Amino acid sequence: MYLYDAPEAHFCNKCLTQAELKENNQPTVFRRHSSRPRAPTMPRNAAREQKTDKNRRVFVTVGTTSFDALIETMDSPAVSASLKSKGYDGLTMQIGRGVYKPHRIAKKTLGFDVKIVEYLPSIEDELRDAALVISHAGAGSVFETLKFGKPLLVVVNESLMDNHQKELAMELEERGHVKWCVPEGLRDAIEGLADDGSGFEFARYEPGVCSLGEVLDDLLF
Q: Most buried residue, 68, 96, 116, 133, by most Cβ within 10 Å?
């Protein structure tokens, strides 16, 4: 069940947080509001606050799912060269259970380290150390990244049925928290990043709080 009945609907932070409860294909509920919520006052230059003495590493994740279109797009020496030109010095790609296995990016760009893994026990360390995160549009991965205050490029899988991911990505971009694209537009999105490894300016996400009773009420009634 997916409750989204009008393109003009808007979501509050409280309701967006409900998306964090979604795992795999379990239902995600967005609550309709009659008026547009006021955006919280948050710094627009959060990306600039990252320390410059750390590695400028990019972390790509598909979570526990598969997203071959994203991984195949990233599997390119041209993409690694573009990332290097934007101030990054390495890439960790978590590819999940997809069929496609990266092989072209093994031809490393000089001075650009590439690490490829299927799964990680936890992505917290990678998120903490990353200068830029490129993620599938799964709610779990998106909101976990936002908690770490990192610039986030969300890549939407348009092949999914009942694709609520696009609506979530569009809403978060409109609020200034992320930028989003589809796999075909990822190279252009990378080219649009800042040249100093800071990614892009974004508004920090402040999660709301939904009680279990409110979530059950939305699901059952």
A: 133
CA–chain centroid gap for 16, Å, is 14
Q: State which fold the 43-205 domain adopts.
A: Rossmann fold (3.40.50)
Q: Is 94 exposed, middle or buried (0-12, 13-18, 19+ CB in 10 A)?
A: buried
pTM: 0.71
Q: Which residues pair with 29 in a beta bridge?
A: 3
In tens digits, the chain (221 residues) has pLDDT values of: 333 333 333 444 554 544 444 444 444 444 444 444 444 444 444 444 444 446 799 999 999 889 999 999 999 888 888 999 999 999 999 999 999 999 888 666 667 889 999 999 889 999 999 999 999 999 889 999 999 999 999 999 988 766 688 899 999 999 999 999 999 999 999 999 999 888 898 988 887 665 545 544 555 54
For the chain, the farthest-separated pair of C-alpha atoms sits apart, in whole angstroms, at: 58
Q: Which residue type sits at 166? A: K
Kindly give the residue spans of alpha helices, DSSP state H, lying in 148-202.
Answer: 164-174, 186-191
